[in-house]
Q: What sequence folds into this?
């Protein structure tokens, strides 16, 4: 059973998906509290952790979504696994933000998955470096 999280190492997909959602978020939050030098503002650590959990969930589902393949490709392009999760999470967060502002449909999954298919490590590095 998974009792800790390290985004540099993929959790066993079956064990990950067996964990209750709250436990997944808790171990991701715990990781970031122990390892990040970054200061998280009000609620941002929880949001950060939820994005990690969603991306990890989608990776664990394997070929059901293009997220696992995108993560693997981003790592082949030079990102470590943690940065690949952040890169994918940045695309997801963009769509969530647009939904929140009423600028995108609540069913944005097709657009999100299509964008991931062409999203590169350089796209993420250009945006966040």
A:
């Amino acid at each position: 059973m998974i009792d800790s999280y390290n985004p540099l190492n993929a959790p066993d997909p079956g064990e990950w998906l067996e964990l209750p959602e709250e436990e997944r978020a808790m171990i991701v939050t715990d990781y970031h509290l122990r390892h990040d030098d970054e200061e998280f503002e009000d609620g941002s650590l929880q949001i950060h952790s939820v994005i990690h959990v969603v991306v990890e969930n989608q990776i664990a589902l394997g070929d059901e979504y293009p997220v696992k393949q995108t993560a693997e490709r981003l790592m082949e392009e030079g990102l470590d696994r943690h940065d690949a999760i952040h890169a994918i999470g940045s695309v997801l967060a963009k769509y969530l933000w647009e939904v929140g502002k009423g600028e995108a449909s609540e069913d944005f999954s097709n657009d999100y998955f299509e964008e991931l298919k062409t999203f590169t490590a350089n796209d993420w590095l250009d945006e966040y470096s």
Remarks:
- Helices lie at 13-18, 21-35, 44-60, 67-76, 81-100, 109-118, 121-128.
